[in-house]
Amino acid sequence: MKKTYLAILVSAIAMAFILMSFSLPQDKQYGPEWDIPAKYKNMENPHKGDKSLKNVGRSLYMKHCRSCHGNKGEGDGPKSRMLETAMRDFGSEEVQSKTDGELYYMSIIGRDEMPNYESKIEYEEDRWALINYIRSMK
């Protein structure tokens, strides 16, 4: 009986350590700099400052972005642990200093682990609503 109890206890402790290793933060590196075509760098946001699109942008963010980027855009969503690269905080100066066109390219066109959303967010107005929402995360 004592041997069985001891074996169960040792197994439980080993399992706890294994599970904890998956939940501990990983030392992830940011990916390489984005190579964004000039077309996007210079792209103007035709809906810049349009507050009527805030709910649309928020809804799209919650549907498509939150699982990786987190509720507040801090890169701490539940799926972020499964990614190989670290994500930047949308409220950071580094992200907020990007042009709207650069954010559009990074968010809609994507690369590597950042998927392409052109077919999931079909309408230009909706895409810009998402960019405006990301801008509001500062």
From TrEMBL:
Q: Which of UniProt's keywords are assigned here?
A: Heme, Iron, Metal-binding, Signal
Cite the Pfam families for this sequence: Cytochrom_C
Instruction: Please name the Gene3D superfamilies in this protein's record.
Output: Cytochrome c-like domain
Signal peptide start-end = 1-16
Domain spans labelled Cytochrome c:
52-138
Which InterPro entries does the record match to this protein? Cyt_c-like_dom (IPR009056), Cyt_c-like_dom_sf (IPR036909)
- What GO MF annotations does this protein's record show? electron transfer activity; heme binding; metal ion binding
What's the protein called, per UniProt? Putative bifunctional cbb3-type cytochrome c oxidase subunit II/cytochrome c
Q: Origin organism of this chain?
A: Salinivirga cyanobacteriivorans
